[in-house]
## 1
Amino acid sequence: MAISKKTSKKTSKKTSKTASIKKSSSKNQFGGLSEKLLLQMHDLMVKSRVLEERLIKIYRAGESYFWIGGPGEEAWGVPLGLLARKGKGLAYDFMHLHYRCTPTVLAMGVSMLDSIRLMMNRVTDPSTGGRNFSNHYVFPDLNIAPVTSPLEVQYPIACGTAHAQKRFGKKAISIVTGGDAGTAEGDFATSLILASRRGQELPVLITVQNNKWGISTYWDGQHGEDTIADRAKGFNIKSRVINGNDPIETYLALQEDMEYIRKTGKPAFIEARVSRLYGHSSASGANPVLEEVDPVKVFESKLIKAGVLTVAAAKKVWEQYEEEGREALEIARKEPVPQAESIWDHTYVGSENADWRKF
Ligand SMILES: Cc1ncc(C[n+]2csc(CCOP(=O)(O)OP(=O)(O)O)c2C)c(N)n1
Ligand SMILES: [Mg+2]
């Protein structure tokens, strides 16, 4: 995070001359968001993309077993991470994220190195001690709940933390993310019911990142509803579809809905249409999908066109994160992997299941 702030400062200094010339037009074009925020979002979106591409290279080099992640969800995930009320405990927002959440956790302050440690199953991985897949983060100090491999279980769990937050009374909210295909699970329907009961509504932001794919099954033919957001409307939940490939539209929608939830204590629903730029996971090859919109490239071009960012400054951001990713890889390479003796650590602590040998 410190690094991204530094970059934003550097880039804004370099570009301030051009930026001030076009200030009034860029304000309108960018929904009134400040130049500083625009550059910060660009910086984090690039950071996330470079990190994910580094993770894919690590997989291809045989230094990891599996990759799944978020290239194509940067314009959605970065504003989400920036807008969350970050901290530990019920006075702060709870994040129940899915496995494409790298942009969000980076925007919340997680480092590239810690993501690479998880990817390479290093004992130093703060999320799981090197015992889970890429992007399956957990950061208790940031209220980032464990990313689960079973789809959709995070949705009712988010209603649980929202219930506790409501009782605590500090206007914190719970936020849940997940994919479109996963909404076929009963857990998704359960969350709509739990969130919206009359008189017992919950301060939860339920979101779906609709990339129109569930592994290799396309959206068409799988849904009777026109939009997933329509399903929330049936429960009287404030609901909308947004272009999740546009960080400005995303930022403004999230800001408005988060304020609404804090103010009313009621839920809101956002379906964000996003890209899936490297297919489902390493299991399907993790190759670039060139037909899909690249939100990072589109946003960068807009900023350059408006004079908010120069070509040289943009290039520097990409190069800087390439360098940080390479350095982080070198560090992680030298770190050990977990040993068999620690397999039961943190698992069913103190219960009879703590040691399978005693079953
Ligand atoms: C309960 C459950 N069923 C099936 C799977 C296998 N699975 C993993 S990812 C995936 C596709 C999910 O698609 P979607 O919810 O649209 O999310 P996306 O991967 O597109 O972001 C499936 C079926 C699983 N992990 N959990
Ligand atoms: Mg999907």
## 2
Amino acid sequence: MNREEISRIAHADHPIKAPLGDDSVRALLAKGLPRGDERVLDLGCGTGEWLLRALETGTGVHAEGVDVSPEALAEADEAATRRGLRQRLVLHDQDAAKFTSPQPFDLVLSVGAAHAFGGLLPTLAAAREHLAPGGSVLVGDGFWDGTPSAEAVGMLGDFDDLATTVDRVVADGWTPVHGHVSTRRELDDYEWACWGGLAGWALDHGDDPQAPEVLATAGTRRTEWLHTYRDTFGFLTLVLRRTPDRS
Ligand SMILES: C[S@@+](CC[C@H](N)C(=O)[O-])C[C@H]1O[C@@H](n2cnc3c(N)ncnc32)[C@H](O)[C@@H]1O
């Protein structure tokens, strides 16, 4: 089974592919969408769940999503149609780092996709290119909540701690106007949804020739989480606006 299929099954019970609960997503989007007529862009939109929830906040909202996964975009397309949102959504199958648009956006999202740009600050630089005057960026990325093992860094990347992460964002010319640090429960719910969901699929599809491999993958990923990064991985989502240049 390929990575995309594994990911589709693993996220079936957690369509937001990041460790945030529904209330947290709602509160973050509310901060980024104060008017109800915004143009929203998601760089690394996956199956489009952030955009679909943004579109559901008001009929005046229009959204565009960019991702390199045709499978994820096909799911976004199908879900948007099912939820009556397709006419206000444009999907782009391309590298988000190379995406250009003739019109700017009032809210630029990028959650769990910083690797596509080479880290958090390059993600913000890319988001800034698309931002309308007075607009906001909603960005989500990891941080280390304690000293990670070399294995954890090798697996997830080299993050800063929470305070240093925010300091670097502020030093880069951004002002956080809202933020959410994923709770222990959100972090655990996400991992259990992914690896428990994948294991459950394998048990429910015992006749499928791929079931043993899927069950083994679920076990490996659960073990990696519990032994390698559960105690040190944190996730921060910020709503940012540009800090006025007073010089
Ligand atoms: C962890 S998922 C997050 C999806 C979505 N933002 C969410 O929170 O539900 C990361 C996404 O980034 C996408 N991605 C990775 N590299 C990319 C690139 N260079 N350009 C666009 N998307 C990319 C992946 O295909 C995947 O859908």
